[in-house]
Amino acid sequence: MQRRTFLEFLGKGAAGYLLVPGMLGGCRQQAVNPAASAYRIKPLMPSVADELQLAEGLSSQMLIRWGDPINATEKFGFNNDFTCFLPLEANNSEEGILWVNHEYVDARFVSNCPSLESKTAEQVHEEQLAVGGSLLRVKKTAEGYWEVAPNHPLNRRVHGLTEIPFNWPEPIAGSRKAIGTLANCSGGLTPWGTILTCEENYDQFYGEHDPLTGAFKLSGDDQGWHRYHDFPPEHYGWVVEVDPRTGESVKHVALGRCAHECATVHQLSDGRLVVYTGDDANDEHLYKFISSVPGSLSEGTLYAANLETGIWEAVEHSRPELREEFADQTDVLVRLRLSAKRVGATPLDRPEDIEIDPLTGHVLVALTNNYPKGNYYGSILKIIEENGDYAALRFSHETYLTGGEQTGFACPDNMAFDPRGNLWFTSDISGNKLNSGPYAALGNNGLYIVLREGEQAGQVLQVASGPVHAELTGPWFSPDGRSLFLSVQHPGEYSESAENPSSHWPDGGNSMPKPAVVVLSGPLLDELSASMA
Ligand code: FEO
Ligand code: CA
Ligand code: CA
Ligand code: CA
Description:
With about 525 residues, this protein is mainly β.
């Protein structure tokens, strides 16, 4: 990688801000040192145990679980996904604010509601408070344990009833603000230290309008909130920016509306932003936004990827393909799935998390699977921007890694690079398909590492295995690489009932399963980050 491009890739410093981004969220603050490690990882064998199993050299501690109070009036939400550690000062790896996404609910556990038909307005209210995100003031104690500072003024919730304005000159479905954020799956970090939280499967809550006919329709995973609230579906499916100091939030219309998995930000040397985001559904698309103004998430152009031609196609109302069918640019962005198809975007196998490889500068996109197309194992796609320029409108692509029995993983989802440039990623085999059919040999969902140096370089090594029906999500490193924040999402999701759960993680015995955030540490992380000191 050319030095100029590499330096540009490292991004802008955030000096002057109280909070500085960790280096692994799309905005790097310091150079990556790929020096070889003598550490040899002994990978885990696939497991079906109802435990969080870890490879030798790793240990975990519980940080917070669903229902834990974070202050006098608010609780940690359900189904935690994206995590993002924001140091309180540059490179402080022991104190900061942790943002955690809360994606969706399991009504049997969250509101004690066994059937959709019987759900009351009060139960919907309880569920609305369980999605969105949590801000937590966290620190490492002298004994080396991470804890959430009890009742800290920075502890707060953003949830399904928080009023959030749109950052856009026109109203969206008649309003300049939305009630709530929901379906918060993965996310990203801005160069100025705010969180981007992405609204993914929003149609579970208030339904959706068919982009062609306008007919109201419900998701197969409908939660029934629309029965008690007439919030427009168009108010959801956005990338939402949250200020971790205040909880103030805004929905960025310019990034388009779809089932956003994540938003990965890169700052160009002239201060403009490039944001990559994928629409996680079968045959949906990969997008990138390029701002026309330094630091703007509202002024610029949204592009969709055409992999056949290697062209980023502008999703702009001025194009002849869009002018007739769409009223204006607001309509183009609200009905993004349709407008992207009209400009030739390539259907992909569920684009999930996106990370920029700190060693090569390539853009990695997890393509989790596409069952109707017979793709059960998924892959990781590599996008190579022309001349290493993230603002380029041309690119080439290759497959970086393919899932399967031979590589030992399936359905890649979240990714993170550690400070040495090793790739860590999680898997998301649907709970009802785990340990059967094509996945019979793969065990529960896990966490995997691909080392970049040494004799194990390039191999996929499993380093964690999740509890029954869980998915490990949101891996995020402290700046020193010695702490790895990790969500354990939806343990026991395919339980027969709340009374007879398939998982008792984390409390064991006959307890109800609880999504939770853990912190991994230990000699393996110490060794992998040793040259950082
Ligand atoms: Fe919420 Fe695409 O995973
Ligand atoms: Ca995901
Ligand atoms: Ca990530
Ligand atoms: Ca997933």
